[in-house]
Design brief:
Length: about 190
């Protein structure tokens, strides 16, 4: 195996999660413009993709904990290494926080009991039972608080993804380190 590249599983998980997050951001930013009969299906797709991201994030973290990522080039400055590690840690935190806050918010939704959530329309995905069993005032507080957190976390995603992409592009095109090949190229980076 090329020790400068991520494994094919790490690469696949990276890109599947990235595409799923882009899809979910797109859905969230556009469903206000959909015809009324298309809004609920878009929200349901958003929830299904979010739960899928949570499952993939668990797989990705387990893979990362058991498979050492390739070392960063020795030419990287110490501040770049620290910023890279901090950005990756925060991205992992957010990849978990987004679907969890959404799932909690959805479980506290006042119409959750009448509107079961089906994962991609295939089978019912459970809401968090103890949250659904709370009194309506508490559920509203939880729904609103976690909805607000879900929105703020989305803004953090935009900033972190920008840093992540900007860093990769800087190393690829300014530093000439062939950074992008570590995460998508199937041949040797040498």
């Amino acid at each position: 195996m090329d020790n400068h590249r991520y494994t094919s599983i790490a690469i696949s998980l990276h890109w599947i999660v990235a595409v799923a997050i882009v899809l979910n951001v797109f859905l969230a930013l556009t469903w206000d413009f959909y015809p009324d009969d298309s809004v609920r299906p878009a929200i349901n797709l958003h929830k299904s993709v979010g739960i899928t991201v949570l499952g993939l994030a668990i797989m990705r973290l387990l893979w990362r904990l058991t498979h050492r990522p390739p070392a960063l080039p020795d030419t990287n400055q110490q501040w770049e290494v620290r910023l890279s590690h901090a950005t990756h840690i925060l991205l992992y935190v957010i990849i978990f926080a987004m679907p969890l806050t959404g799932w909690i918010m959805d479980s506290a939704w006042d119409k959750a009991a009448e509107n079961p959530m089906f994962l991609f329309g295939a089978f019912e995905w459970p809401r968090i039972g103890f949250i659904m069993a709370m009194d309506p005032a508490t559920k509203k507080t939880i729904h609103d608080s976690f909805g607000e957190a879900h929105e703020y976390i989305a803004y953090a995603i935009y900033g972190l993804v920008f840093l992540h992409v900007a860093g990769a592009l800087k190393h690829q095109y300014v530093d000439k380190q062939r950074q992008l090949q570590r995460m998508w190229y199937t041949g040797s980076v040498e």
